[in-house]
Amino acid sequence: MRTILFLAIALIALPTFADNLRGYYAGAAIDFVDGNATDAEGNNVGFRVLEFNGGYKYNSWLGGELRLGIGASGESYSVNEGGSVVEGEVDIDHFESIYYRAESSNTVAKIYGLIGYSNIQTSASFPGGTTSASKSGPSYGFGVGFVMNEKTNLNFEYRQIINTDDSEFTTVSLGFDYRF
Questions:
Q1: Nearest C-alpha neighbor of 139 from the set 112, 111, 158, 166
Q2: What are the phi and psi torsion angles at 136 (to 5°)?
Q3: Closest by alpha carbon to 90, among 120, 68, 66?
Q4: For the domain that residue 32 is a member of, what is the CATH number?
Q5: Is the pTM above the cut of 0.90?
Q6: What tens digit of pLDDT does each residue of 27-61 get?
Q7: pLDDT of 119-149, one tens digit each?
Q8: What span, in angstroms and rounded, lies between the C-alpha atoms of 158 and 169?
Q9: Quick check: 137 and 161 in contact, CB under 8 A?
Q10: Number of domains within the chain
């Protein structure tokens, strides 16, 4: 009798477990972005970004994801102009990314890798005016997620948003996702 009861519970629980391993998901995160640069006074340049993501997992090793990041805080930045230091403000306006996502999951946690392409838009305001720049390039990262309940995960992640010859942005993020 116990065996039959155990099998009945296991069969009922399987679809619940499968919901977290396959299907659509959406989420949000707070990113702590390192601009991998220093200003004229030797200060590091860092930003805070709110990120939204959505994707589809076909199975553990096949999934796609789109992300949108919106700058939440600017950074004071100083440059040398004609022998004097000029203060300004730099900011990440937004970034967009598309990723292939491979993931290994169980009922407690998951580990995943990301490989894709990103575009990032930045702006800078100085007393002489405002400029903006856009960079695109390869992007990659990895993360670990913990199952909070059958549809919600808490994620910790490291990602190289972009790394070109003259720009490099890396991020550490804390986020969640909801599986539909």
A1: 158
A2: -130, 150
A3: 120
A4: 2.40.160.20
A5: no
A6: 999 999 988 776 656 677 788 999 999 999 888 78
A7: 999 898 888 788 898 999 999 999 999 999 8
A8: 11
A9: no
A10: 1
